Amino acid sequence: MARYTGPKSRIARKFGEGIFGADKVLSKKNYPPGQHGNNRRRKTSEYGIMLAEKQKAKYTYGVLEKQFRNLFEKAASANGITGEILLQSLEARLDNVVFRLGIAPTRAAARQLVGHKHITVDGKVVNIPSFSVKPGQIVGVRERSKSLEVIANSLAGFNHSKYPWLEWDESSKVGKLLHIPERADIPENIKEHLIVELYSK
């Protein structure tokens, strides 16, 4: 199961955002990593800006280059705005839906729960993080996994209303994808048009 396993705080400092969730290091070192990070004022090229936006999207959703490229090509061949469709495809990934439902505190934790067979889709165990959830499908916690501390802690006090495209039933620990979110509803700070421009070069 391919995934990014490098230093996460370094990446968060590079983009100046909590890419992998809340990162305390940003409050102490809000400048790029490296020996000259605090003094670097070098102007980034247009290509560099577009590349950085793609990298940010990949790190945010925990997708490696080949998967990301495949998602982009599918989005480019679909009817609609390519960048928006790309983000919607990323949002529909099972690991992301598990994270959005509050079952896991981070996407990396959600990916692990899926991989370890703690998550079901329409009542059947699915252990593929990249599985694309369709509107109307039910994503839940496997019966014998409902007592897991990591899941209970993550769900405690979680505000499900901030993601209106999802519905959550606390008693049965299941959520439903009501519809694919509109771009305006997706909270990630990603300029998807730059990613489209990069791949179009």
From TrEMBL:
PROSITE patterns given in the database record: RIBOSOMAL_S4 (PS00632), S4 (PS50889)
GO cellular component entries: small ribosomal subunit
Oligomer and partners: Part of the 30S ribosomal subunit. Contacts protein S5. The interaction surface between S4 and S5 is involved in control of translational fidelity.
Keyword flag Ribonucleoprotein: yes
Family: Belongs to the universal ribosomal protein uS4 family.
The UniProt record lists the keyword Cytoplasm: no
Gene designation: rpsD
Protein known as: Small ribosomal subunit protein uS4
Family matches, as Gene3D superfamilies: Ribosomal Protein S4 Delta 41, Chain A, domain 1, RNA-binding S4 domain
Pfam families: Ribosomal_S4, S4
Molecular-function GO terms, alphabetical: rRNA binding; structural constituent of ribosome
SUPFAM superfamilies: Alpha-L RNA-binding motif
InterPro entries: Ribosomal_uS4, Ribosomal_uS4_bac-type, Ribosomal_uS4_CS, Ribosomal_uS4_N, S4_RNA-bd, S4_RNA-bd_sf
